[in-house]
Design brief:
Strand content: 25-35%
Largest sheet: 4 strands, antiparallel
Distance between the termini: 56 Å
Structural class: alpha+beta
Order of helices and strands: HEHEEHEEEEHEEEHE
Number of helices: 5
Length: 202
């Protein structure tokens, strides 16, 4: 019993030391939000805060947002995002559009159809569709084997995938790197920015 208690105490002390070390690093970044009202700015703050929480390196790191008028400030404790992470997570609208190449005007999947998202070591974004979207997609791709689907992210084509058979609830989208897959997943998980909104770093 005494040995177990010593081990538990040692582990707890180690965790406290880790937490203390992490809390020594702190930074803050602010953005001016335009294209929305006070309620919209508060919504933007929640979305951006969640995006950064999705990529924070460890349990002991933290992210917190504050709103002052049309200014959104994010405080990072225990870590500091890279310039790429800051830019991507604040400037990406988060609009996903997947279409069959033979029917480009009819979206097969949008960001609204994504129930969950994650990323893989193979540089893929893994998405899970809602039940209703999964049924619709399976029906529309039942006879699409051999065709192509086009994946657009914020209006830019990022992938063309060959359909091997009916698409089901879980789908993988190739990204250029693991980091890009993580960032795309963070945006999909947190939701898109409101229409017409833009953020300018201060």
């Amino acid at each position: 019993m005494r040995t177990s208690w010593k081990k538990a105490t040692a582990v707890f002390t180690f965790l406290l030391l880790l937490a203390g070390a992490a809390s020594g690093l702190e930074s803050q970044q602010s953005w001016e939000v335009s294209g929305t009202d006070a309620d919209g700015t508060a919504r933007v703050a929640r979305i951006v805060e969640r995006r950064f929480k999705e990529i924070k390196p460890s349990l002991f790191d933290s992210v917190s947002a504050q709103v002052n008028g049309n200014l959104v400030s994010i405080r990072f404790t225990g870590w500091r995002p890279s310039s790429k992470q800051l830019d991507t997570l604040t400037q990406t609208k988060g609009k996903l559009r997947i279409t069959l190449e033979v029917a480009p005007a009819e979206p097969l999947i949008t960001e609204k159809d994504v129930e969950k998202s994650g990323f893989l070591a193979s540089s893929e974004v893994a998405i899970r569709l809602t039940d209703s979207a999964a049924q619709r997609v399976a029906t529309r791709t039942a006879n699409a084997a051999g065709g192509l689907v086009v994946v657009q992210w914020d209006g830019r084509a990022i992938a063309r995938l060959r359909v091997a058979g009916p698409l089901h609830r879980d789908i993988g989208i190739s990204a250029t790197s693991v980091e890009d897959a993580q960032l795309m997943s963070a945006v999909l998980t947190s939701g898109p920015l409101p229409e017409g909104v833009s953020l300018k770093a201060r």
